[in-house]
Structure formats: C-alpha cells, structure tokens
Specification:
The protein folds into two domains: 336 residues, D-Maltodextrin-Binding Protein, domain 2, CATH 3.40.190; 112 residues, Periplasmic binding protein-like II (D-Maltodextrin-Binding Protein, domain 2), CATH 3.40.190. It is 37% helix and 17% strand. The strands form six sheets. It has a five-stranded mixed sheet with strand order 4-3-5-12-6, sandwiched between helices. Strands 9-8-10-7-11 form a five-stranded mixed sheet, with helices on both faces. β8, α8 and β9 form a beta-alpha-beta unit. The longest helix is centred in the middle third of the chain and has 19 residues. The chain is globular, with a radius of gyration of 22 Å. It starts with a helix and ends in a 6-residue tail after the last helix. The structure holds calcium ion. The site of calcium ion has 7 residues, from β12.
C-alpha cells in the first residue's frame, strides 16, 4: 500500500462525513496487509458510506481477534461485506487467534504491542481478564459491547459410547460413568479453555444427569485438533465446543453428538464482542462505528438466504479453513447427531434475533448467570455475587450498544428496554431468576459452593 493510497483513503473517510454519500471501492484503494493473520484482505463490495456528521470515528482501524468457530461470523462478515467500512472503519483487521489463551495474551498487550484491541470472547473471559484472574493478576479492564450469537455449540461423544443411550438427558446413565471410574480411568471430557462457556456447558449437562463433573469425570483443556485425534483413537470420551467442530466429528466418523447447547438452554447466551476499556474510552465514536458494522453483519448473517454465502466466506483458508459442507449444515439448523438428526432453524446459530428477542443486545442478566455459574463451580469466590451488580456495571456497556443502535436506525422495538431478559429455564426444569441468583444455586444438587 502506498502513502498515496493511504492519503486517498483518509481523504475519502473525511469527505464522506458530509450528507452526500460517497462510494468506497476498496479494491481500487489497495488492500492493506493483515499483519496478524499474514493474509491480505479481500476486496469488499462497493459500500455506500453511512457516516453521519458528528459520528465520524476517531480512527479507521481496530484489531479484533477471532477463533474459527461460527461465533466469529459477525466479525468476519462485517469485514468481508464492507459493513465496518460503511461506518468509517475500512481498516479494521479481524485477526485469527491460535487459541483462547493466545487471544487472552494478545489483548493483554493490546494492538500497540502487536496484539489485539479486543474481539470475540467466551463468557466470562472479559470479566476474568478485567479482574486479572487469568492474566497473572494484571487487571486489563474490558467492556462487553454486544453478544455475537446464541446457540452453535454442542457436546460430542466418542464412537465407543454409541448405543448406550447417552443423549441430552443423562438421568439413569450413571453406570456408564461409574464403570469407567471403577476401571481407574474416569470419563474424560475436553474443552479448549477452562472456566468459560464450553466448560460451563459440559458441567451443566453432566450435573443435570446426576454426574459430578469434578469427581465422576475428568475435565481438561485440550486444543481442538488434538481432541479430534484423541476422539478418533478412543483416548477421549467427550468434547465440548463450537460449530463446526462437533459436527465435523460426526461427519469425519470419529464420534457423535449427545446434545446441542441449544437443546440444553434454548436461546442461551453464547459469545460476545468485548474490547479493552482504554481503547473504547479513547475512541467512543469508533466503538459505536464498530458496533453498527457488527449489528448490520448480524442482520445479514441471520437471513437464512445468506447462509450458503456465509459458509463459503467462513470456509476460506484465511478464516476457518474447513470444508464448506461441514459449515453449511449446522448454519441451516441441520445436524446429523450420529444417533438422531435435527432439522430446526430455531436451534441453529442465531445472530440478530431469537425467540426471546434481541441476540445482539448484551443483557446484564446473562452476565450474572455466567458469574453465578462460576461461583457454582468454585471458579469465583462466593462474595462475587454480593458485588456482582457493581462488577457487571463496570464491564457491561449495554448503554453504548443502545446509543449505537439508535444511530444505526434500529427500530425501537428491537432495542430492549430492560437490562434483564427475565427468568431463564433450562432443559431439566431448573430456573435462573436474575433477581435471586442464590435461589438458583440452592436449587442445584451438584455444586462446589
Ligand atoms: Ca462457543
């Protein structure tokens, strides 16, 4: 990219702040190298700028990390379809992260140190990073800005467990786990990062069936590629992760799916966009521009007519590097579970709306569930709940989401009026009332608190 091109782009960004719409033709302006992924941005479609006077972002770039699972789709699409550019952020980099641990380390150093400003996170990672719990006691304050998706995760089991009736409900199946325990090798289940969604989903599933995840099973962190290999050779019993990995295990013939997280908790919160507080505080307009781009991408992703194209884009080597067909089926709500099939779009990954309303809006009541569940398993001290409101208020910036939604012209009906989605119900009949998290903890038989 030459300086001339750079100046021209800056000029266009500035020039489009007038009421007159201009056209960004990224292909003509040179494609900036993507320093983190080492790839080159592909030319986006011509995008009409929607930057209004007074909303011009302070910067045109941000570096947002992603993990190659369907949760990343809104970030990839905002980049690829030019929605970041449309709101004055043409130079945003979506940067492939080698692992959740790498993402955490990269956000700790920030983009100034060659890392990332923020990006895609499992919950409650932004809280654990803000509090220094997973960053060697170095507090790196983060803001949760929007939810990226609901659903899109599952629990895969190794083929050796086929025919044992292990599905969504494990009631009456304790013998499978007890036999393994008696033989000296407990049921072994993996996730790719501890104390976050995947860990919490598999723990919920086991405990709902009367299986204590800490004493009747062995849960451990394993990179997804290693887990697939271990499943194939029978060394691993289960694997909790995001699409397309659970589905891929079935299509590769190395396992089957016990449950989709969408079956465990319909319309459950999944992954989020969170960015370093210092970046957001310094770039409030750019933050809203990013949010507007993501919101538009989420609406695009949610249209099932776009999902073939979504699969094609995500399958590319620079993004997920997987066969397109293992992405398309889950995106369409079609899951070959191995022992049964699911064909239900309401259980597919959803990005903008689900049957409970907004997906994109980050409900504080969901953050409270993640903190409560962390207390349940002893990941966070019990007094976390006493101080939860102040903690959530300091990290969850649903107020910025609302401002961005209004600027983007989102219909008032699609902007939640309460920070709580209300009482949540799980597949086993357990209820979580955000007004009384203690009652939820009291109702659970298996817990460490
Ligand atoms: Ca996930």
């Amino acid at each position: 990219m030459t300086d001339l091109n750079w100046s021209r782009r800056r000029f266009l960004v500035t020039a489009t702040t007038s009421a007159t719409a201009s056209i960004f033709l990224k292909g003509c302006l040179g494609n900036p190298p993507d320093s983190v992924t080492g790839t080159t941005s592909s030319p986006a479609a011509a995008v009409v700028s929607a930057v209004k006077a007074g909303e011009e972002p302070e910067v045109t770039t941000a570096t947002l990390g992603f993990i190659p699972i369907v949760e990343a789709a809104p970030l990839v699409i905002a980049k690829e379809k030019g929605f970041f550019a449309k709101y004055g952020m043409p130079d945003v980099e979506v940067a492939l992260q080698a692992s959740w641990g790498a993402a955490r380390d990269n956000v700790k150093v920030g983009s100034g140190g060659g890392g990332i400003d923020g990006g895609q996170w499992q919950m409650p990672m932004p809280y654990l990073i803000s509090e220094g719990i997973i960053t060697d006691n170095t507090k790196v304050p983060m803001y949760v800005l929007c939810q990226l998706n609901t659903h899109g995760n599952g629990i895969a089991l190794a083929n050796k467990h086929k025919g044992k009736g292990l599905g969504l409900n494990l009631q009456g199946k304790a013998n499978v786990f007890n036999q393994l325990k008696a033989s000296g090798t407990r049921f072994k289940a993996a996730y790719t990062f501890p104390r976050a969604n995947q860990d919490l989903w598999i723990r919920y599933w086991l405990a709902a069936g009367g299986i204590d995840p800490d004493t009747d099973a062995e849960l451990l962190t394993v990179p997804s590629s290693q887990t697939v290999a271990d499943m194939k050779r029978g060394a691993m019993d289960a694997f909790s992760t995001g699409d397309p990995w659970p589905y891929r295990i079935v299509s590769d013939g190395s396992g089957f799916l016990a449950a989709l997280t969408a079956e465990m908790w319909k319309d459950h919160p999944e992954e989020y966009l969170a960015i370093r507080k210092d970046w957001v505080d310094k770039n409030p307009k750019a933050t809203k521009a990013l949010l507007k781009g993501v919101m538009e991408a989420q609406q695009w992703c949610d249209d099932f007519n776009n999902r073939q194209e979504l699969a094609t884009i995500l399958a590319q080597r620079k993004y997920f590097s997987v066969p397109e067909n293992v992405l398309l089926n889950p995106l369409m709500g079609k899951y070959n579970m191995g022992e049964r099939t699911i064909d239900d779009r309401s259980l597919a990954p959803l990005y903008w709306k689900d049957s409970k309303g907004s997906v994109s809006y980050p409900y504080k009541s969901h953050d409270l569930w993640f903190l409560t569940e962390s207390v349940r398993w002893g990941f966070l001290p019990k007094d976390t709940l006493t101080n939860a409101k102040a903690l959530i208020d300091s990290v969850n910036r649903e107020d910025i989401w609302k401002e961005a939604a209004k600027e983007a012209g989102i219909a008032a009906a699609d902007i939640p009026t309460s920070t709580s989605r209300g009482v949540e119900e799980f597949f086993d009949g357990i209820k979580f009332d955000p007004e009384n998290p203690q009652a939820y903890l009291d109702s659970l038989k298996i817990k460490k608190v």
